[in-house]
Predict the structure.
Amino acid sequence: MITLNELDELLFTIKKQFDYDFCDYSKASMLRRINRFMDINNMKNAVDLKFELINNPAIFQNFINEIVVNVSEFFRDPSFFKSLQEKVFPYLNSYPKINIWSAGCSFGEETYSLNILLKENNLFSKTRIYATDISANAIERARKGIYDNNNFKDYTRNYYDCGGKEALNNYFVSDDRHSMIQSELKQNVLFSNHNLVADSVFKECQLILCRNVLIYFNNELQNKALELFYESLPVHGFLAIGKKESLRFSSIYDHFKEIDREEKIYQKIR
Amino acid sequence: MKTDVILIGGSAGAFNVILSILNNLDKSINTPIVIVLHRLKNSVSSFEAILQRHSHYQIKEIEDKEALKKGFIYTAPADYHVLLEKNLTFSLDVSELVNFSRPSIDVAFESFSTLLEEKCCGILLSGSNQDGANGLKTIAENNGKTFIQDCSEAEFDIMPKAAKNICNKHIELNTTTLIKVLNNEYHHKT
């Protein structure tokens, strides 16, 4: 176990030695992730941890994968996806070409959920999705698009709750343990490594999805990421954040109007 | 910048106990209260509205990075873990379930206790799994007060019993006595 004081020093070391900057991440969440990592790997204290990180590259990579949270599900918050289809898709349809940024895509569940709904709403063929994540491991898995069958009962329920029109397993190729997303649904998705903390605007996008990613940042870093989103959106572009996240504490708040207050969907107005 | 906080954790059978605690807390008490109750995800519930009818506090479902304030009762949103930052703002977290639960009582109790130490009071009520026991133990180890609902009174005793087994500094009380103790402990801390 490490303490809050040791955490600051550790994050500073990681920044200096490895060029990964977690200094402005939520400390409470970081502390929990790191202590969990130490617990799983039988490390007793900060000295053990630092020694392993510096001397063992495989452990360091493993550490990065563990401390960035990659938990997601298909159609998390069905009411959000329902609202997105009703309130945002008709607007997107007026564009000849649509670019969407799925920021912090983790293993791809959110990105593919979106893509399935784009297909059902006849927007698929003119849409390109840029899906990014800080974790190379997550990007690799998202690209593969293979998921454990055990969770599909929940996913199916979510899918119908958000207005799904088909059978969810039509979009997958399955064996008895795993399901892989259909290759067609991968074709318009470009997965890449992107760090919301360090990297800059790469494409103008009419819709940015970044749900339950900002919660791992402190206020300053949230602001920085939100400014990046602001710059990536055209006027009238849409931003969706997590249900319990808020633009209220940010500098860009006045530049957006609420499209759905409950589901945290915003539109850039200036 | 430590401040007193009362944490209440519970699951099946805890809701009515929470209502009677809120109903009977002295109106002069304004120590922030955080309620972590296991609830169904994706269900629109009127949980906060019901609590509001029974309390002089303002009831607020937690939003990420919002500040902890006196006079408020905060509820953990369904499907998020709740953590506390050094500057006394909340952080939410959607990482793995802990004890099959998100929010997990253990996660919240441990995070608050690490920061607030002896200022953090933990109350564990009725429930049918073992979430909360480790968290309560952490609070006790950091010299915070720990209360467990009387196992014979609790509608489901798995949760309080689990805590009793591993947290040896706890005080086990029925609801009526618990309310008295809280009123006595916190009426002057406004």
Observations:
- The first helix of chain A runs from residue 4 to 18.
- The mean pLDDT of chain A is 94.
- Chain A has two domains: 4-67, 78-268.
